[in-house]
Every structure is written in structure tokens, then in C-alpha cells.
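Protocol step 4 of 6: structure prediction from sequence.
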Amino acid sequence: MPQNNEPPTSLRIFGKQSRFLRERHGMTRRELSALVPYSESFIAMVERGERPPKPGYVEAVDAALGAGGVLLVLIEEVAEKHHPAWAEEYVRLQAEALALHGYSTHLLHGLLQTEDYARAVFRCLRPSLEDEEVETSVQARLVTQKLLTRKPACRVTFTLEESVLRRKIGGQAVWEDELRHLLKLYDLHNLQLQVMPLGRETHAGLDGPMTLLETPDHRTIGYVEGQRGSYFLTQADDVSVLSHRYGTIRSQALDAEASRGLIQRLLTGEA
């Protein structure tokens, strides 16, 4: 079912509450901005639930509005949150997964990205993000990578298009650091990484990227992303198609050892 980009309920509730308190004081956003170290536009976005407030924002606004802690009690629910509601659900499912299988066609999967690579990715987004949003998103992405070393271990496989590896997002230094990071990931016993070579003529992955998640109750859920929306696929027929397709993609890709060799050659300029 398609998922929209509606902000999390907690952010919308916080925004309405803080707006109510501000208006009860007969205060405009510009007047509030003069009392706290945040811009009028930032206040507007928080009040609409479009931006997650940092703890410092919550503390400053609570004090400026004389809220007596009404906003402070919501810090754990709203501070640093930045995912739309559907994304929060995906992050939760990913963190709990028994197994995860990802096929990447344009970018490295978020679980594989270095901090600098992730930062470069978020800076590529259009409309562009504010610097604060970029950093919040980067740190949240790094937190999800705990899945790779979690105990009990999650079984993880990734298949990457060779073009993903060749695209130097963030520049030469960031790219080289990312390749070195991928090579280190081969040391993880629970992770397998394969590359679909550019020269492969038969290709089952032309419909684009996808992720398959096995939940703690051993259900498999498909997740696919597009330009303006993302989808969870839970029907058995849909999941069966994706599972079969992913199996075919892996069989068409280079095996893990050959894939590792290709990454090493890219890093040394031999490929």
C-alpha cells in the first residue's frame, strides 16, 4: 500500500500544542523568534509538524511561553524525530528484522553508507534540506547501522549494481573511503555482498531497488521506493514475486569473492 509523507502524529500534536500556547499569549511567530535562538520560518515549520525540534528548542520555547513544562514533557516523543510516519514504521521493522535483503540500483543502501557518503546523499536531495536537517538525517542513518552488528545477528545480503559503486558521490576521497568501508564489511559473518556487473546482459532487476525484511514472527515484507512515495508489500503473492526476483538477481550477480575483488580493483584504479 502506498505510504504518504505525512509527519508523525507526535510532531503534529507538539506543533499544535506549541502554537496554541503562543497564540494564547497573543504572540506572533516573529515575536517568539526574538525571544529564542530560532528563526520565524523554523518556528512555523515546527508548529506545522514539518520539522523535529531539538531539545534546546523545546526548552527555549517552553520558557518563553511560560508553559511550565507542558512542552518539556514531550521532548522524548518529538525531539530529533525526522522521519515521516511511514518511514518510522520501516525503521522499526528494519531494527527488528531477523533477515534483510537489499538490491540497490542508484545509491548504496543506507546500512552500507559511511557518514560522509550519507551526508553527500542528503545534500543531493531536491528540494534541498537545511544543514540541520542534513545532520539529523545522517546521524539517524548511522544509528540504523547497528543492525549489522546486532546480537542476535541479523542475516543480511546486499546486491549492488556496479554503477552504484562507480558513482563518486561526495567526491574522490569520500568514494574511496566508502569502498574501503565496504571491503571491511566482508569480515562480518552475517553479511554477504554481491555486485551485478555492468557487462551482465540478462538482468532481472530492471524494475528498480527493493528490500525484503523477515520479521520476528517469520513473515517477509517487501519494501520499494519511488520518486514520490514508498510502499510496503505484505500480500503473499507480491512478496513471492519479489523473493523470486531477488533470488534471480543474486544468481546473475558476481559471487561474494569476485565482488570483493571488483571493489578492490575499483579502489586501486585497475577496474
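Step 5 (inspection) to follow. The chain has two domains: 6-78, 85-268.
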